[in-house]
Amino acid sequence: MAELNSSWMASADYDQLTRTLTITTKRGASYEYVDVDPETAQGLQESDSPGRFFASRIKGKLIEAGKTPAPPEPPTGIMARPMGRRR
User: Fold this and answer.
1) How does 4-22 read in b/e, with b if 16+ C-beta sit within 10 Å?
2) What is the pLDDT confidence band of residue 86, given thresholds at 50, 70 and 90?
3) pLDDT band for position 38 (50/70/90)?
């Protein structure tokens, strides 16, 4: 797994046997792309701008096999209470 220097991508992992590229975002979502050639995966992992590389070489050009959503954000300090009749 390669850490990426990107504002939204955290890492990219490439499985040579299945030719699957998994990109994990900083929020924790994962995207899987299938039938990715090794040069494309290596190019993303070594790019100075992974976001630009993704936009020009991966997005809309490779088959997205699936997405794992990011975990929910933890609640912050203020909690709402249900609206209704006060007693």
Assistant:
1) bebeebbbbebeeeeebbb
2) low
3) very high
The radius of gyration of the chain from alpha carbons, rounded to an integer in Å, stands at 18
Report how far residue 18's alpha carbon sits from residue 34's, in angstroms, rounded to the nearest whole number. Answer: 8
CA distance 49 to 78: 38
Q: What is the 3-state secondary structure (H, E, C) of the chain?
A: CEECCCCCEEEEEEECCCCEEEEEECCCCEEEEECCCHHHHHHHHHCCCHHHHHHHHCCCCCEEEEEECCCCCCCCCCCCCCCCCCC
Q: Which two structure tokens, joined as six digits, stand for 43? A: 């190019």
Per-domain residue ranges of the chain: 2-68
Q: How far apart are CA 70 and CA 87, in angstroms?
A: 40
